[in-house]
Every structure is written in structure tokens, then in C-alpha cells.
Amino acid sequence: MKLEIKNLHASVEDTEILTGLNLELETGSIHAIMGPNGTGKSTLAAVIMGNPHYRVTEGEILLDGENVLAMSVDERSRKGIFLAMQYPNEISGITNADFIKSAMQARLQEGEHISLFKFVREIDRAVTDLKMNPDLPHRYVNEGFSGGEKKRNEILQMKMLQPHFAILDEIDSGLDVDALKIVGENVNSMRGKQFCALVITHYQRLLDYINVDHVHIMMNGKIVKSGTQDLIVKIDKEGYDWLKYELGIEEEVVEKHTIVLGTCAVKDRK
Amino acid sequence: MNFQDNINKAKTLIQEDEDYIIFYDGKPIRTHLRENLNVEMDNNFDATDYRTNTSNAYIEEIQEHAPFSPTLRIRANTSLKVIHLNENEKYIDYHIIIDRCVECRITNIYYKVTGKTKIKMDVVVGEDAKVIFKNITNAYDDLEMNITGFCLRNSDFKLDDLSMSDQKVRYQNNIYLVDEGSCCSMNNTVLNTTGKEQSYNYEIYHDAPFTTSLMKSYGISKNNSKLIFNCRGKIAKGAKNADMRQKTKGLIMDLYSYISANPILEIDENDVIANHGAAIGSLDETELYYLMSRGLTLAESERLVINTYVAPYYQDIHDEKLLTYILQEIETQLQS
After folding, report:
1. Is B218 in the A-facing interface, judged by CB distances under 8 Å?
2. What is the pTM of this model?
3. I need a labelling partner for B102 at 20 to 30 A (CA). Which of A26, A258, B74, B215 fits?
């Protein structure tokens, strides 16, 4: 399967974040996107998933030739797109197990039902693989979870839903070294002909555990360079300045205005 | 629907060999009770026996006008269903007394209440008794409801109340923790889709030391309805080490619906715990987006979120017939 992003422009309110992004993902491969803060990496993830907060102004996203932008969020998910969110929501009152079961049920044809036995066996196995607390499926979705537990819970959902295209938005933030290794290994274990991951990260450390095939650097709302793992090593050593220099990219300077919030006990000098 | 049809319909909620009573216009007309349970028709119940004077004009009015004041006495562990059908009677007054050390589960259903009705119900939870009381109100006309609970020494009273009435409603549920070590949990669930105002007054009185209470209220307001929760807790002088907590959650389903949560905590003793929290809002778009990003449709996602407000009421019900009835009624209300 192929997910093609062509000349994608997207804005939030009146600010354009993505400025003509091109990217091609194919199942069987793992991609990483790196880049300085504020370059639009998370926006890209949100736009692919269909977050209504963002507005696509130009370009297209095609899934095996089918227009993804015309699909609702849930339709995209059922077609095999998955987003492991940077800040997963807490939903009180819905247990993890019920939520995942409902999501799996949503993928079945009308009249088909998930075998409860099979579901319990699969979720138990996934919880064990991720070395999560066994009571976690029975707790409310992300409620009272630590930052690391929330991230692992996203991977748990990914493992259960078996998407074709998984976008992992800064899945490494909030993870300690051990958890990072577990998450990395679990993403790696999903590698296969029917699976593609797009790993968004700032750091090399997650990519120590995930074997990526392609590395893309994003700046000012578009992919500016693509390459292999060598790129990661260079960025880890030298940062992004060399690339800005090489490509002649200038950072946008935000004009700052001084705002006086208020004064007190100030005496005018005569 | 005639009298017999109503009785037959009510009986569909009863499981085989289950203890039950069916009241018609305030009078017990069908019973299936073991020998340790019985209904006394004489009216010698006096709330002042339980050391708290609870008289007020509303209670006196019902006591004066209700033609029957039956008292249900529970002397042994049981799971009991009480179903009320009301068509003609304006005043309903009845009492439940649970003996000491008894563990029981009572499901009290106002199954079909038509005509403007005033209901008063007293529940006495004996020493060391443990009671789960599930109350369901489904009234077709204006309703005033007063449930008063008295918790004696070391008793544990769980009052779960579900209100999904079609008309104007005024509730007054009071629980008195009259003896040391008694505890209660009050879980209130209200669906107001009437387009009218419904007012729910919940009160818990800590009259003795080492008493514990937890009051949770969940409300959904739809179709320009107005829902008011007045949640009052009082810790009396001398009720040392009392622990009183309140939580209110409200979901507003459209632009002109309204929910108001008014927590009132009166504390006349030092060295106690008392807190409250309230959250009222519409469906959270980011929550819906999160659920939809896993493949659930908007309607399914909304239903899941709405369910979080009503599930606390029914999640401990394992009686298939009762559960089906409750889920159907909730669905009907939410679709209205």
C-alpha cells in the first residue's frame, strides 16, 4: 500500500504551517522525520489523521490513489492510518479494554463480532510485550497514567488495531531508557509487508532501537532533505545549522513588540 | 393499557424465584417474599425514633394524605425488587427497615407513574447492615420525590438513583449518618431531556463521629432543559473525623440546555475532611477526535462519552432483564 502526500499546504487559524510538503510512504518500510522545533512535524501527523483544528489549503494525500482528505477521521483510521498522539487524551469512564474492543469491532463488517476469548488473549499478550501493568486494560483510558504509560498505551492500541500506516508523534517524549527500548522493540516487531511507520522525533535515541529505512528532515513546513541513517548520526553530532547553511534556509524572525501589562508605584520624573 | 397489562409488564422485570413486591397506587398487591421479609400495613413509623427530626411541611402533607403507609421489614439477606405502578394516587408514603447485620440489595422502580405525584420514602439501615439501594424513577407527569435514609452504627448504605422522568421534577434525597462508623455513598444519575426544569436536592448529614460519605452526581441536559443540582453536606458539631466528599459532572448537549451545580458544605467541627469538585461542559471535541482516530464513528464516539455519565449507575447490575430495561429507557431518553 502507498500513502502519497503531494504539495501539502495546511494552516492553523491564519498561520500557514505546512508549505508544500511532499512525501511518499510505502508499506514494508519505516521512515523517520526529524527537524527543529516548530517546523510542522506534529501538524503533518495531525493533518494526515484529519484533525479538524487544521485546514488544508492546497495539495493532496492519497492512499492507494484514494483521496484521504475527503475522508472523515474515523474512515481514515478504518482504512489503516493510525496516529500515536503526542498528548493522548484522558477519557474517564471508558476502560481501555472496552475502548480497544469497540475500535476493533468498528473495523468489522456488519454482523461480524470479535471473539471475546481471542481479544482477551491478544490484549494480554500485547500488555506483556509492552511490560505494562496487567490491570491497565481495565483502567479508564489514560486516566491517572504516567507520561510513559500513556505512550505505551498508544503502542498497545497500535498493536491491537494493526494499522498499515502508523504515525508515531514524539512517542519517545516522557519515556525512560527502559521504556524507550520496549517501545522501540515493539515498533520493530511490527515491521512487515503490510506495515509502515512514520516516526516523528527530535532525538537519535529512539532510532537506536528502531531500524529506519528512510530519514527525512523537515524545516519551515516542508521536507528539505531525505536520506538514510547517516543523516541521523550527522544531526546528532552537528545539529541542523549545517543544513540551513547548505540549503540557504533562513530562520523566520518574529518581530517582537513590548507590551506593558501594568505599572504600580511609579512616580513620573519631573 | 389496562391494570392487568401494567402488572404483566412490570412482572417481566422479575427474575424467577426473586423476592418482589408490586405496589399499585401505594398499596402492595402482589408479593413473593420469604418468611423473613414482610410488609406491615400499619403506619407506626416515626422518623424521630432515629434521633433526627426530619419533619417539614412536605413530609407532613404526604403523611396526612397518603391512604397507606406500608412498612417493609427486611430481616434476612436478600435481593429484592420493589415495583411501583401509580395511576390515581397523588400521595405515596412507604418505609423500609433493614435489620442489623443484614446484607441486601433492593431495586426500587417507579415503573409507571402518571398524574402529579408526591412520593415519600424512608429507609432505615440497621447496625452493621450493608445495603445497596438502586432507585429508578420514570415518571410521566410532574413528580416530587423525597427519599430519606437513616444509617445506624457501622452501617453501609449505597443509594444509587437514576432519574429519567418526562416532566418537571423536584427531588429531595436526604441521608442522615446518625451513628458512629456509619457510611453512605450516594450516586445520582439524571437525564433531563424534557425541555423543562428539574431540580435535585441531595443532602448528607454527618451527625456522628467517624462517619463517611461520598456523593457523586452525573447529569445530562438536552433539548433546552434546565438541570439544577444542589448538593449539601453538613458535618455537625461533635462529628469528629468525619469524611465528606462530593463530585458533580454535567454534560450539556445543546446550546440552550443548562446545568447548575451548587455545592454547599456546612462544617461545624474541626479535624474533618470535606471537599467537592464539579465539572460541567459540552462534549469535548478533542476527546471525540481521539476516539474517532481509532475508527469509531462520530455517533459511536459520542455514545461512548455519554455512556461515561450513565455507566456508573448500571455497571454493577448483572440482572439481564433489569439491565435491558434500564438501557432501553436510557436510549429512549437520549434519542428524544
Report:
1. no
2. 0.81
3. B215
Whether A83 contacts chain B with CB within 8 A: yes
CA-derived radius of gyration, chain B: 20
DSSP state of A164: S
Distance from CA of B293 to the nearest CA of A (A): 5
State how far the alpha carbon of B73 is from the alpha carbons of A248, B25, B41, B112, in Å: 88, 20, 11, 24
Just give the CATH number of A2-247. 3.40.50.300
Q: Where are the domains of chain A?
A: 2-247
User: CA of B307 to nearest chain A CA: how many angstroms apart?
Assistant: 8
Q: How many domains does chain B have?
A: 1
Query: Are A61 and A5 spatial neighbours (Cβ–Cβ below 8 Å)?
Result: yes
Taking each helix axis as running N to C, give the angle between helix B285-292 and helix B298-314, from 0 to 180 degrees, rounded to the nearest 10: 110
Range of the domain at B33: 3-335
- Tens of pLDDT, residues B299-336: 999 989 998 899 889 988 988 889 999 998 888 888 87
The whole-angstrom separation of Cα A192 and Cα A179 is 23
Using CA atoms, how far apart are residues A160 and A174, in angstroms rounded to an integer?
A: 22
Helices within A8-146 (DSSP H only): 41-49, 73-78, 96-105, 116-129
pLDDT in tens, B82-123: 998 888 778 888 889 999 999 999 999 988 767 788 888 999
Mean pLDDT in runs of 10 for chain A (270 residues)?
96 92 96 92 96 96 96 97 94 90 92 91 94 90 91 95 96 88 92 95 85 93 92 87 84 65 61
Q: Which residues in chain B are closer than 8 Å to A85, comparing Cβ atoms?
A: 290, 293
> Is there a contact between B199 and B173 (Cβ–Cβ < 8 Å)?
no
CA B77, CA B91: separation in Å to the nearest integer?
Answer: 30
Cα of first residue to Cα of last residue in chain B, in angstroms, is 22
| A92–chain B Cβ distance below 8 A for any pair | yes
Cβ of B295 and A89 within 8 Å?
no
